[in-house]
Amino acid sequence: MDLPVTRTGTGTGEATAGVTRLYRGHSLGLMRLALVMTGDRQTAEDVVQEAFLGLYRRWAHLRDRDKALTYVRSAVLNGCRSASRRQKWRLRGEHLPPVWSAESEAMVGEDRREVMAALQRLPIRQREALVLRYFCELSEEEIAEAMKVSRGTIKSTTSRALAALGRLLEEER
To answer: By CB count within 10 A, which of 32, 36, 62, 70 is most buried?
Structure first.
């Protein structure tokens, strides 16, 4: 994603460089996060693009540019929540499994597909906590920042999510 450089304002080149650098370094991981959260490739791509566009627009207003990745990660999670609400409204609670590419479908074993399907059935906050912890390998502190909650909330949410995931997987067997 190479953002256009405009000459009408100060800091636009800095915003372009900063956001482009962040995009090149983290967009794939954020796409994976969004794909696991939404279960739909097109929605995931849209969510990530919107998050980076939002960062670009707000670049000049960031207090701590070292936290830009945290900002984008939070924006991706918020976008996934919004997409999930829109999808639930359209489907009225009907669960659709994630749409995977043929390539990823061939690479992923049956056990992993079962886990991914069960993960999609968890409440969104529990899914977020597990995906950020075990898929993105973030620390409790990083997860708390991304989800905008306390570390204690992350601990309890993760614990409840693991228990619920275990129950869902047992039901499947």
So the answer is: 36
160 CB-near residues (< 8 Å, 6+ apart): 126
Long-range contacts made by residues 41-44, C-beta under 8 angstroms, separation at least 24?
41/99, 41/101, 43/83, 43/87, 44/80
Which residue, chain included where needed, has tokens 């701590």? 64
pTM for the whole thing? 0.73
Please choose, from the candidates 24, 19, 8, 33, the residue with its C-alpha nearest in 3D space to the C-alpha of residue 143.
33
In angstroms, the CA 122 to CA 53 distance is 29
Distance (Å, whole) CA 55 – CA 72: 7
**Separation of alpha carbons 172 and 93, rounded Å:** 19
CA neighbor of 147 nearest in space, from 163, 166, 123, 120: 123
Q: Would you write out the chain's pLDDT as a tens digit for each of its 173 residues?
A: 544 444 344 468 888 899 999 999 999 999 999 998 988 899 999 999 999 999 999 998 888 888 899 999 999 999 999 988 776 544 444 444 555 566 555 555 667 778 888 898 999 999 999 999 998 899 999 999 999 999 999 999 999 999 999 999 988 77
